[in-house]
Amino acid sequence: xxxxxxxxxxxxxxxxxxxxxxxxxxxxxxxxxxxxxxxxxxxxxxxxxxxxxxxxxxxxxxxxxxxxxxxxxxxxxxxxxxxxxxxxxxxxxxxxxxxxxxxxxxxxxxxxxxxxxxxxxxxxxxxxxxxxxxxxxxxxxxxxxxxxxxxxxxxxxxxxxxxxxxxxxxxxxxxx
Length: 176
Hints:
Shape: globular
Largest sheet: 4 strands, antiparallel
Order of helices and strands: HEEHHEEH
Helix content: 55-70%
Strand order of the largest sheet: 1-2-3-4
Radius of gyration: 19 Å
Oligomer: single chain
Structural class: alpha+beta
Number of helices: 4
Number of strands: 4
Strand content: 5-15%
């Protein structure tokens, strides 16, 4: 791990590391705020299961609540099992991604951004699980017989963050 004391042979100093953690706070914090504000608006303005066409036949704002994981995984399990499992998995995942973020040099800004997006999204959905025991979803895309499960801002951030990480893995741009 690079030293945080002054400059290293890679030219990364204290100010670079500070900027890296400010970046994490801005990106992850911005995702959490955007996620929670949009979910608050859905809870206040759209009745459960109501759907507002935005682009008819393609995209609606539809208020659904997912007690399970991605794509409804474990939705039929008891609330206690889901609660314990999802809180534990989410907490471990956030901890691991924070560790990866810490290990990522400031010179790998895109990779750090991907990790920050994942952290922000995971925290946004974790807040829902703690508050409601389920996640508020509302972005609903479909075309003819094809329908993607509804999702939210946090899910979008996680997906983009994982995509950035995968691109770094494929292109061999993961730091040592």
